[in-house]
Amino acid sequence: MALRVATQALTRNIRRSGGVLKLNHNQVRKLQTFTLPDLPYDYHELEPVISAEIMELHHQNHHQTYITNFNRALEQLDHAMSKGDSPTIVKLQSAIKFNGGGHVNHSIFRKNLSPVTKGGGEPPVGALGKAIHTQFGSLERLIDKINLEGAALQGSGWLALDKEKELKRLSVETTANHDPLVSKGSTLVPLLGVDVWEHAYYLEYKNLKASNLENIWKVINWDYASEMYDKACS
Fold first, then answer.
1. 224: burial class by Cβ within 10 Å (0-12, 13-18, 19+)?
2. In a 3-state reduction of DSSP, which class is residue 40?
3. What are the pLDDT digits (tens) for 110-148?
């Protein structure tokens, strides 16, 4: 019914314009907005590695802020595009990358965590486990490499274990600020991401980034990483 009504309205608009299709910007597209995803666990379930307090702050405050600002930037971009405002379109790219990247990275990070009672910290098996052993020698060596990369990262940023689809191998990447992994290459598929911004760990570990990295592996959800790896290989 709704489709028929919309079609009839569109037909009337065409007739009124002498047979030429004239639609305003709102009729052409509806702006997509993003919402804060629910966590697959309760805030307290990652304790003592990550406290309930920091999980709630990180999720409800930090992540929500990135989504709010991402939606605002997209709305401004939509308006600028409708007016052909090139300077504003260019200007908005940094806000979209920062806040959109913050949303993308945090969404992956949440899925990469799991309570110990639900398999968090259990080593990967299957194809991903074999790939890690073949390329790095052991899971422990991979973790050591990721931790060293994270400790050496200056300022704020992210750690990622990814699958390079073209080279058919695993790689460890770091990105600054909230740059998403795709900004380093369209063929990189994120398997897991670790937030090394201080807001992710400062209540437990203060400024001790290395201590956070050492403990985070106790609640890493390798099942999710394995699922992403299998999809990247298919």
1. buried
2. coil
3. 999 999 999 999 999 999 999 999 999 999 999 999 999
Query: Can you read off the two tokens belonging to residue 175?
Result: 């990105």
For residue 104, give both structure tokens.
Answer: 């993308």
Question: Against a cut of 0.85, is the pTM above it?
Answer: no
Question: What are the helix (H) ranges across the chain?
Answer: 2-16, 25-28, 52-56, 64-83, 86-91, 93-111, 126-136, 139-152, 202-205, 209-216, 222-233
Angstrom distance (rounded) from CA 19 to CA 17: 6
121: alpha, beta or left? (left if phi > 0; alpha if psi -120 to 50): left
Angle at CA of residue 49, ends 188 and 120, nearest 5°: 55
Beta bridge partners of 174: 159
Structure token pair of residue 106: 């945090």
Beta-ladder partners of 162: 171, 190
How crowded is residue 4: how many other Cβ atoms within 10 Å of its Cβ? 8
